[in-house]
Specification:
Length: 346
C-alpha cells in the first residue's frame, strides 16, 4: 500500500506529500457482523482541514474528512478514484479498506485555534460519508463537532447516514453559536434500485426520518436529491414520488444533481450497469460520450422538473441561519439526584 502518496486533500487529483509516515499506520479488523470483511487502517494525520482545489465545482473552500473509503459502497461514488493513490482498487477496495484519521478531533481543535485560521466555513461529508458505519465504532464526529462549536466555526454536513441523529444535541448546541447546515442525500425512493446501487446505506425512508427529526428539533434540513440516475430514477413518476416523500419529511430545500461518472467511479458503475441493466450500456455510452457529466440539456431538464415539483409540494428555500457569534458553550447544569438512579441501556 502506497501510504507515502496519500494526498493532503482527498479531493485533489494528484498526489502531494504524505500526511503521515507508513510507520504510523495500524491495521485492524473486527470480527463482528457489521464489520466483517472490512479492514481499518488507523493513522495519525498531520493536517485535517483541507483546501478544495480552485478548479473544483464545489461552492466551499475547506473540508474535513475523517475517513477515506466508504462502507456505504455506492457504485457511483466519485471519491473512488482517491483509493488509487494508495495502490488500492477503486472497486471493492474502496468499499472495504477504510482509512481512519483517529486524531481528527484533537488535530481539528488545534488547527481551529491557530492564528492563521480565519474561521471560514468547513464542509463535511463531501468526499466520503463521515457517518458511515465506521463512525459507530470510532466516534470521531462528536469531537469534531464539539471543536467547531467551541470555536463558533460555521460548518455543514452532508450524509446518507442515520447515525447523525446520535449527535443531534451537539449539532443543536453548535447552531446556537454559529451557522450550521445539515443536508441528507436521497436521490430516489425506489427500494429495488437502492438495494443494488447503494447497498451499504440506510434505506431512503430512514434517511428521510433524519430530515424529519432535525425539523422537529428546530434545525432546518435540506435534501440533496443525488444522484438522479439516467433511465433508472429519472422517469417523471419516480421524480414525483421522490420529491413528494422529501416534502412530506419537511425538508427546507431540495437540490437535484444528475449522476456524474468520473474516472474510477465510471469503470465500477459501468461494470455494475452491465451486470444489472445490460440493455442500458449503449445509452450510457452515448449520454456520457463527452466526459464525466451528462449533457447540459439533460441536466437542465431534470433540474426544471424537480424545481417544478418542489414548488407544487411546497418545499421552500433554505432559511437563513443565525450569524456567527463567538461565545463559549456552557453546558446546562443538571439538578443533583435525590436518590439512586437507574441507568438506561437504550
Amino acid at each position: 500500500m502506497r501510504w507515502e502518496n496519500l494526498t493532503v486533500d482527498p479531493e485533489h487529483t494528484r498526489a502531494d506529500p504524505a500526511l503521515f509516515g507508513a510507520d504510523a499506520v495500524t491495521t485492524r479488523t473486527f470480527d463482528s457482523p457489521e464489520f466483517r470483511g472490512i479492514t481499518f487502517h488507523e493513522i495519525r494525520a498531520r493536517s485535517i482541514i483541507n483546501r478544495v482545489p480552485a478548479v473544483s465545482r464545489m461552492s466551499f473552500q475547506w473540508t474535513v474528512n475523517p475517513y477515506r473509503g466508504c462502507t456505504h459502497a455506492c457504485v457511483y461514488c466519485f471519491a473512488r478514484k482517491t483509493h488509487s493513490y494508495l495502490d488500492l482498487d477503486t472497486g471493492l477496495g474502496f468499499d472495504s479498506q477504510i482509512v481512519v484519521k483517529v486524531n481528527a478531533p484533537e488535530l481539528l481543535r488545534r488547527q481551529l485555534g491557530s492564528h492563521r485560521w480565519q474561521g471560514e466555513h468547513i464542509a463535511m461529508g463531501t468526499n466520503v460519508d463521515c457517518y458511515q458505519r465506521a463512525e459507530g465504532r470510532y466516534r470521531l464526529m462528536p469531537g469534531i463537532i464539539s471543536a467547531l462549536r467551541d470555536h463558533a466555526n460555521p460548518f455543514s454536513i452532508l450524509t446518507k447516514g442515520t447515525l447523525i441523529l446520535r449527535d443531534l444535541d451537539l449539532i443543536r448546541q453548535a447552531a446556537e453559536v454559529t451557522d450550521v447546515g445539515i443536508s441528507v442525500s436521497v436521490g430516489f425512493t425506489d427500494a429495488a434500485l437502492w438495494r443494488t446501487v447503494e447497498p451499504g446505506t440506510p434505506a431512503p425512508e430512514r434517511r428521510l426520518d433524519v430530515v424529519r427529526a432535525f425539523g422537529e428539533h428546530g434545525i432546518g434540513c435540506g435534501v440533496l436529491m443525488a444522484p438522479v440516475i439516467p433511465f433508472l430514477s429519472d422517469h417523471p413518476d419516480r421524480l414525483r414520488a421522490t420529491v413528494e416523500a422529501i416534502a412530506a419529511a419537511g425538508a427546507t430545500s431540495v437540490t437535484p444533481l444528475v449522476l456524474h461518472l468520473r474516472p474510477g467511479a465510471r469503470e465500477w458503475f459501468m461494470t455494475w450497469l452491465g451486470r444489472h441493466h445490460p440493455h442500458l450500456v449503449p445509452r450510457y455510452e452515448r449520454l456520457y460520450a463527452d466526459g464525466s457529466y451528462a449533457p447540459k440539456w439533460y441536466q437542465r431538464r431534470i433540474t426544471r422538473q424537480v424545481h417544478e415539483l418542489a414548488e407544487e409540494y411546497g418545499i421552500g428555500p433554505t432559511r437563513a441561519q443565525t450569524p456567527r457569534r463567538i461565545r463559549p458553550y456552557e453546558p446546562a447544569q443538571e439538578p443533583p439526584a435525590s436518590g439512586p438512579t437507574q441507568l438506561s441501556l437504550i
